[in-house]
Amino acid sequence: MGGIDDLPEASTVTASTFESDSIRVVTGNSDRILAGHVDDPMLGDMTTTGYLDFSTASDIPGEFRTGPVTSVQLRLVPDYTYGSTTGTTAFHLNEMPSEFTSNGARADTTLPAGATVTDFSISPTDTLVVIDLPAAWVSANDATLRGTSFGTDFHGFQIQPAGGQTVFGFDLARTVLRVVSNGETVNYPVSQRLWTASRSGTLALPPNELLVQDGFGNGVSFDFTFRQDSSLVGGAVNRAIIALYADTLSLQQNAPANFTRPVLQGVILAALIDTSAVALGQFSLRDGKFVMTSGDIINIVQRRLSGVETADRFRVTPIVNNTINPLLLYTPSAPDKAPKAVVTVSPTGE
Amino acid sequence: MSRHITSFSLARKLFFAGCLSVLLAPAAFAQRNNDGSIYSRYGLGELRAFPSAQLQAMGGGGTSVLSYTYVNLTNPATWADQILTRFSAGVLYQGVQATDASNDVSRLTEGTLNAFQFSFPIGSKVGVALGYEPYSRVSYRVQRDGALPPDPVLGDTSHFILNLEGSGGLQRFVGGVGYRINRNISVGADANIIFGILEDARRTDFTGGTFRESYLSTSTRLAGVTGTLGGIVTLPQLASENDVFTVGAAFTLPATLSGSRVRTLSPNDRTPGDTLETKVPDGSVKLPWGVRAGAAYSYDQRWLLVVDGQYQPWSNFSSDFSFAGYDPGGVSTFRDRIRASAGLEFLPAGTDLVRPFLARVAYRLGAYYDRSYVSPIAGVDLHTVALTAGLGIPLFNPGTRLDLGFEIGTRGQTDQNLVRDTFYRISASVNFGERWFQRRRLR
């Protein structure tokens, strides 16, 4: 009927603020540790260091306890690489002088390490890395390695890169410390584990783009001035979509030869209120963009339009997957790919 | 020797009045059927008035009609002429058929309380009247569907269904006094308390896509006071010995209604979501003044001819709240209201109470035109034309009547995507008359 003009309509609002933000990433007790070094021409010089400790195994044969220990192998299973796909990367295997706590530990943790036990190298094509520990070290730790309190007496290793152009990730479910004693073989499983990350140098990003990166906690915070759109004010929100556009081509095209740079695929959207963050959902990259919508997003936009300010701004950070995968997001200055919110409202006559 | 005697039928009448009140009470609260005209969505609703059961069936006017039988709420000056203490109450049943340009038809019905009236004389020159009647009525239900354009991000298209419902309205308590100055002139004044709740709800449903349904209800409370001043000039034997000609006018003061509004917004589905209740800052609504004038010609106490006119400059309406058709500081589609009516009554028996029953029945006919104060579209007037009819049926006591009213009319148009309402109304009122507060003497 004529005269009924209050029909639902959608309005697009471009982000009014869009700036770099960061969080401290928890890397303790992860399913994977990273170790390696890469000098990325776009993202700077990145170094990751892994820490492993082991616990005693179940069903240890009695002959094993008798000894002596004749060999010890650290068996690492690589399941992630970032950087050069050729050449080898050298590592120091350092002994940890004391127990370390990995529960809740973050990627910027600093732990003191002891003397180097041995050096080894990894090729990007390796599927299993077997590190034979020196006989002298084995003999010196014989009693500890076959003792009943191995879990507390032994403090683990630090895997420290010594150059190279590749960061490796190791599947801890398949990583063991294999000890052979008196003809019996026991695989000690991983207990405490942690990896740390550091970056030096400057970022060389394309213009009008910001970095989101796993491992380093790089994120982006942004906001919209919904109430400046008069067609939205006072309306009942039926749908609110936040769209962030990603540049995946630059990461692929600007990589050196024989260089793999996996792209981050998932982010967490949160609403920031003072210093608190309320998670609004996890979203995956599809067709070059993140399309984020949920009931919680609708609630926040509804309150903003009703004049009840419940969130200072939004923030996206990487879903922690124990990688250093990056992603570039377009800023509001980018034509056609500016971050936007599409809000569908039913006018309420106010 | 004298004794004070109370009418032996008073207890029976009070009992009947009590039963009637009990029967009417559910109707009084049955104002949420949402089954009226879509045009009641606009402004403060569809304006209603109940001058008296007699005048309602004669076109709804009667500013100058004096009656010993009925209380005329259009003009307090008419209350000067009373003999009996009177009480009346009535109900209204309405049906509306709405037709659009595609000849699609919807039919809705509703029943409501019409009015209460109470009056009594004080001496021979003064009369007091109290009344309760609807001032406006909001009762509608409409649905509109459509499609959203493709989403700029997702590219999907979705359809929506918008349901609009309204209920409630404003009521009017009126109380005042009429005074006969002399044989020819009467004056009167009354005070009106206008109050009520206007409720609107809109629900938006979607098909396809990841939308949340929404339900918004708005409840607006308004209350305020105004008053009416009236006068009547009576000219008996103007053209013959058995006729009476009266002219009358009444002026209603502008009114300011204080109000408050609460908006509640909630998801319409069962998934968790916010329910926001927002109290809009209190404000006021300014109703315009109104004037009405009319003339009546009565012959031989059997014939009564009435013509009437009414004017309210609703273009002067202002409000701190928005209503459909009105936006504070913005667009308003309100128009000045004009109403004209005419009616005729024939009572064959006149004042002869021993005539046969059918001769003591009053037969009524009338018509009116109303240009509404609201319009769904700016610049498009909303016209109502209707015919009225009725019967005034004497009951068991000379002072008591049952009045039946009938009305049929059309409102609106099908051009410009509007609808044309064809409505009918059936009303029934009972009117009691009794001598109260007077001593009777038996010798």
Name the descriptors.
heterodimer, A: twelve-stranded antiparallel β-sheet, five-stranded antiparallel β-sheet, 10% helix, B: 443 residues, mainly beta, 14-stranded antiparallel barrel, two-stranded antiparallel ribbon, elongated
Can you give a write-up of this model?
The complex is a heterodimer of chains A (350) and B (443). With 350 residues, chain A is mainly β. Chain A is 10% helix and 46% strand. Chain A has helices at residues 62-66, 135-140, 142-146, 150-153, 249-253, 295-305; strands at residues 9-14, 17-22, 32-40, 44-54, 69-76, 78-84, 89-95, 116-122, 129-132, 157-161, 166-171, 176-181, 184-200, 209-213, 218-223, 236-245, 259-260, 266-273, 276-284, 289-292, 313-318, 326-330, 340-346. In chain A, the strands form 4 sheets. In chain A, strands 3, 4, 5, 6, 7, 8, 9, 10, 11, 12, 13 and 17 form a 12-stranded antiparallel sheet that branches. A 5-stranded antiparallel sheet of chain A has the order 2-15-21-18-19, with helices on one face. In chain B, strand 19 and strand 20 form a beta hairpin. In chain B, the strands form 2 sheets. Chain B has a 14-stranded antiparallel beta barrel with strand order 2-3-4-7-8-9-10-13-14-16-17-18-19-20.
